[in-house]
Amino acid sequence: MTNAHEIDYKLHGDDMQFVEIELDPQESVIAEAGAMMYIEDGIQMETIFGDGSRKNDQGGIMGKLLGAGKRLVTGESLFMTVFTNMGTGKRHASFASPYPGKIVPMDLNIYGGKIVCQKDAFLCAAKGVSVGIEFQKKIGTGFFGGEGFIMQKLEGDGLAFIHAGGTIIERELRVGETLRVDTGCLVAFTKDVDYDIEFVGNIKSAFFGGEGLYFATVKGPGKVWLQSLPFSRLADRIYSAAPQTGGPRKGEGSVLDALGGLGNLLDGK
Q1: 28: how many CB neighbours lie within 10 A of its CB?
Q2: How high is the mean pLDDT of the chain?
Q3: Which residues of 214-236 are buried (b: 16+ CB within 10 A; e: fewer)?
Q4: How far apart are CA 33 and CA 20, in angstroms?
Q5: Which domains does the chain carry?
Q6: Which of 43, 104, 168, 247 could be a cystine partner for 39, CB 3.0 to 4.6 Å?
Q7: Cβ atoms within 10 Å, residue 112
Q8: Amino acid 100: pLDDT
């Protein structure tokens, strides 16, 4: 028996994509707050606790509160929005990427009913897909794993859509094959992939090589999706290029700009 609504979709665009969902009468799609681009006449919006899946509904009000409360740990809102076609014919709702990258459709039926993804990767899904937290096995992962620690799990038998920054690559890992990945570059993986956080082990590399203190390690069998431009990396670049407090820099390409941190010191900052 299919629990999730069977939605159709079409992807538009290249680097700033949006997904157009086609809804039959009484079909619904769930989405993060702020993801909607447009909806056609006849589609009704409703704000709900959690994700509206049967998994949360079975526990009554406590189940809904628990499902919504878990989302706070991931830094997301307590609420999600459900878009339902209340008309008599087909209607469309569209959801846009939050920053340059790609939207990746995930048919959970193909991947054994579960995908684990970065906490900010989820965009929208057919109603019936459960959105929750994937707890890690080691407590150290929680304290020191950085942005790669808090993962979301998408469970069910319907379509879900995640967003990745920059270029996305899909890797099929053989049994025992391992990848060490920057924690921000790991977008998603299938349920059989073994995931952990690994200390770099070389303080000089961590502090002077420009890399983080921790890697995400993923071991097959299974499939992983990697992104070339995590949002945190994009935000850091934008912040570093913005004029600092106390007046603008001397201009891009200047000697002080080329000196970086030393230039800031000489510039009186």
Answers
A1: 22
A2: 78
A3: bbbebbbebbbbbbebbbebbee
A4: 17
A5: 8-229 (3.60.160.10), 237-266 (no CATH)
A6: 43
A7: 12
A8: 86
216 forms beta bridges with 181, 197
What pLDDT is attached to residue 133? 82
pLDDT in tens, 131-179: 888 866 554 444 444 444 678 899 999 999 999 998 999 999 999 999 9
CB-based contact 127:4 (threshold 8 Å): yes
In tens, the pLDDT along 229-268 reads 887 777 777 777 877 655 554 444 444 444 454 444 444 4
For the record, the structure tokens of 119 come out as 């906490």
